[in-house]
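Fructokinase, pasting as requested.
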Amino acid sequence: MDRSRSRNRDPEVLVAGETLIDFLPAASGPLSSVEGFDRRPGGAPANVAVALARLEEPPLFWTRVGDDPFGRYLRDALAEYGVVGRFVELDSDAKTSLAFVTHDEDGDREFSFYRDGMADTRLEPGRVDDATLAACEWVHAGGVALSSGRSHEATLDLLERASEAGCTVSFDPNRRPELWPGDETFRSVLGDALAHVDVLKATDDELEALGFEGESVTALAREARAAGPDAVFVTRGSDGAIAVTADGTASHPGYDPDIVDTTGAGDAFVAGTILGLREGRDLRKTLAFANAVGAAATTAVGAMAALPDRESVVSMGDGDVNANANGNPHDER
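Structure tokens follow.
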């Protein structure tokens, strides 16, 4: 593969959603007991965009941050990671959102958000023009943008227009209960989004919160497919992931990395899924690749800083990871 050509071609993937500051704790434990934090760039869609850039598929990214020191820091960080900044907006009338992260002893995390009225809730419909969507093959968004403000309408508008333009649309509910007034609202709003979604990535807990029922994870995924998506990918932590499509079901057990921080692992999995499908891998090889990207992202602190390059993903994975649909090494495509 000619990697310089990959970097220089027009982006074929558009990611949309929040960029914010993650304050990572100096020690595990509840927020009330943490005495120090490190500032890191974050936000699930931002992590997906950076992960794609790290994996040699730099996307367009539509986001909105405050025209303040944090916002300018995030804009510059995205540019340094190789994300195409044509739709990175600075808002002079709102501040940049903040999220304080806490970890338990296993590295699992919880978030406390400070984003009411902040810049990422103020995306405006139509800012991504029709010509841009016509040139894109894939559009990805997440559920946080749907939880409040004008970004709710703007994100639904983008998903609908992307679907009408023939883009493959992927979506991650990224459920954060503290951002929603209740499960009924979450279920109703995301139900509107799923009508335009081709590829859904979720956890089993998220599928249940969306109102789907089933005696197994596979049954849950099949129920979710009936709501609109062509493919449903379900991440299961240390148990790997499954995928369900009209052609059948695939699974992959995942990997066993030395976990330091799980922040951004699901976003890394999303990027791996997008690339796996775009590169023509079958379901199981896509799961293997996505699991390897997600696992590699847990081996360092922070979301963006831990996102792996191709070499790190290959070293984490198995024979399926460094192969395209024909079983050939990636660099021979």
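Note for the archive: DSSP finds eleven helices and 13 strands in the chain.
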